[in-house]
Amino acid sequence: MNKSVYEVLDKIERIGYQAYLVGGYPRDCYLGKETNDFDICTNAKPEHLKSLFSDILEENYGSLKIKYKDVLVEITTFRLEQDYIPPRAPVITYTNSLEQDLQRRDFIINTLCMDKEEIYIDVLGAREDLGNRIIKVVGDASKKMKEDPLRILRAIRFATVLDFKIDENLKEAIIENKNSISTLSYYRKKEELDKIFLSSNCYLGIELLKEYGLDKILECDFSKIVIVPNLEAMWAQIKCSSYYPFTKMERKRIDIIRYFLSKGRIEDIDLYYYDLDLMLIVATILDKDLKIIKERHESLSIKSRKDINVDISFLHDISKKDINSTFSLLEEQIISKRLKNDSKSIETYLKEYFK
After folding, report:
1. Structure confidence by residue, pLDDT tens digits, 24-40
2. Taking a C-beta distance cutoff of 8 angstroms, is the pair 274, 232 a contact?
3. What is the pLDDT of residues 235-285, one digit of tens each?
4. Any residues with CB less than 8 A from the CB of 203 and at least 6 apart, and which?
5. CA 244/CA 238 separation, integer angstroms
6. How distant, in Å, are the alpha carbons of 47, 239, 309, 313 from that of 343?
7. CB-based contacts of 327: which residues, under 8 Å, 6+ apart?
8. Of 44, 65, 154, 72, which Cα lies nearest the Cα of 109?
9. CA 228, 232, 233, 234 torsion: positive or negative?
């Protein structure tokens, strides 16, 4: 166990409260997966926790996100969720019972706990479901999906990332309540879809989204998509609502990829101007031979402007345009092999060009 996380658990216990890792960390440890998903549940209330930890990053619904030494940890007080005010605003009542706290959670596989000595506490049979590689809901499946529609996408995400089956009752509840996904923000929907797209098992996630009819409600068309290990390239292939939020950098890369997908080919000048890894992703989607793309990139006459054999002072003397435009002209001519990359050929060409 991470030493800092051990210390967080120990500090809470030292003032007389219970504290357990819950959800992702014990689940992934049980499955033999590496994880840094540190969620702690405790019967210590937020005011008690604030007296122990100074670097509190966020407080929300009885949950504190803290930074402790080298780790980020989310600590949540045992609680009951008595009611939901649509779409996602729970009314919280604290409890001293770990079992009552676990009953409010979404999936049984996420109820496994671990104490600071790395001993598992399994109240609801999480290890059985993990062994059977199946995702079941804690309690009534339809009620849980109605309470929080995000659980529908979380179910798909866990099935994808863990390569688990979805329980039949959960499947029926997802289909029954699928329209409620439209109440979620596009940010939250994109957050879950990003995790599905980044999974090495992404194909399963997309098939489940289509099988359950979630693609239409998500306003995403997955009909023509090649699975690649690149998030922007995945989104570039998807026709989706313009309301999905992308950063400026994401949007720029998505637009570049879409341009090449519509173009249908990669030219040598493209290999010069654009990052090779990005071009290889595009080539994969276009079903081009990656070995040939790499060979073409390696055989480019120049890799950058500094490789152009020309005296900069000569460019200043002869160019009737700005130097940047002249360099662009030379790049295109040299890459296309219409011009040799030697100073004499370049000077002769430019004299003729600018006369």
Report:
1. 999 999 999 989 999 99
2. no
3. 999 999 999 999 999 999 999 999 999 999 999 999 999 999 999 999 999
4. 227
5. 12
6. 74, 48, 5, 12
7. 305, 308, 315
8. 154
9. positive
